[in-house]
Amino acid sequence: MTELRRTRTRPLTGIERPTARPIPLVVTAIVGAVAVVALGFVMKATQADQGVVVALNQTHAGWWGAVSDGVYRGIEPVPAVAITAVIAALVWAASRSLRTAILFGLTVAFTWLPVAAIKILVDRPRPDAALLAHPFSPLQTDGSFPSGHTAYVVALAITFWFLLRGTRFAWLPAVLGVIASVFVGIAVVGDGLHFPTDVLGSAIWALTTAGAVRWLIVDVIAARIGRRPAR
Fold first, then answer.
1. Of 195, 116, 196, 98, the residue nearest 155 (C-alpha)
2. At what angle do helices 98-112 and 196-215 cross, to 10 degrees?
3. Cis peptide before 146 (omega within 30 of 0)
4. Positive/negative CA dihedral, 223, 148, 74, 156
């Protein structure tokens, strides 16, 4: 009854809207995940895009070098978690709903964080620093594929779209998300830390799995937690 009253007095935000057809979302997520892992192993074997990294790294100097380094350091895992927490707090303040804020944060996290497991599974080496004009310091030794930084930005943009869909502002996260994702992708490749296909794999991952992640969190987990046991 409490949940029913809450729904009547405060309209559901886009992120809380029940999913009408979850099966296509789940199938898309499975196909996307398989495609991303397959892409990772293929590119690990060929390293066909190493030349793009070497060429783009030539521009990693002056103000652009400082900016791209800042982008990489600014959305490493710990800062990214802190940024997500701050944004979730702002969502709470704006929506006056702790539930909405929690769902927002969890959707970002569970779309983004699984790429760490793919990194371990694929274990693609980072671009060869010996070939780079401006190698990044300190040397990164974890897997290159996919790019966690890009996955985070795409996941954040998609989750904002979920939040704002159905409103006149729904276009905003779509447009800004594309711009931010391209910018971050160019920055991490220019740093010499990722291949272009690392960035592509991350974008595919987030775009194909975010819908299923939101359904799992909102329609399955949160819905069951919100139910009161029958008396």
1. 116
2. 140
3. yes
4. negative
DSSP 60-88: --HHHHHHHHHHHHHTSHHHHHHHHHHHH
Rounded CA-CA distance 148/218 in Å is 24
- Give the whole-angstrom CA distance, residue 11 versus residue 60: 48
3-state secondary structure of 191: coil
Place of tokens 């010996």: 130
- Write the pLDDT tens digit of every residue in 118-140: 999 999 999 999 999 999 888 88
Considering the chain, what is the average pLDDT of its residues?
90
CB within 8 A of 155, min separation 6: which ones? Answer: 107, 108, 111, 112, 206, 210
Contact status, residue 117 vs residue 205, Cβ threshold 8 Å: no
- The Cα–Cα gap between 177 and 171 comes to 10
Is the CB of residue 223 less than 8 Å from the CB of residue 12?
no
